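Got a spare moment? Tell me how you read both lines of this record:
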Amino acid sequence: MALTPTPHNAAAKGQIAKMVLMPGDPLRAQFVAQTYLEDVDQFNSVRGMLGYTGTYQGARVSVMGSGMGMPSIGIYSYELFNFYDVDAIIRIGTAGGLAPDVQLRDLVMGMGACTDSNYAAQFHMPGTLAPLADFGLLRRAVEVAEQLGFDYKVGNVLSSDVFYNDDETVNERWARMGVLAVEMESVALYLNALRAKKRAVTLLTVSDLPLTGASLPAEERQTSFTQMMEVALGVATSDVR
């Protein structure tokens, strides 16, 4: 067991809740903390990766940025699961919609995560492992979304290592296989959770449509995706009571 703080996280043991919401953008973590949490304590600012713990409807919840890509969320989620005794991580991220019926601002829940990454190679599996969300967290996310009256879609997402892909046909091919949206983190999060025997689920808001070029501005991505945030907080609250 490594000592805390770590080189990437200034928190001491006990400063981080058992349930962590994890956006890619640290400014979205700050927005969640300032908008929804009470009695907030900032536990991290190392490398600009902001982390906060507070309460929401009486439940203790943390929120922390993960950065972009699987190497980044791989570090932070590994440390949270293995060094800080975190039980569950809910990724609250943005994604590019791929399926024909996925539009801007839609809420997508990642039941499974495809990938073009080699992240899983470290586990030396004798075949291809299919990384899945924790069913209990996913089911609760669906329940909360329905209680709040939010539309949602559940299915496969793609975690890609490449944002600017030289092969311009890849997104069309993933869409043909029913993949709802593309992002860059969920596979590493799901694999780390599986290996640590912990739980994870990804909730995404569609911020752009790669096949059409439609996109939302950066500021709106940081502060306006409140349906995703409220579903995640509802899951966190019910999970820790």
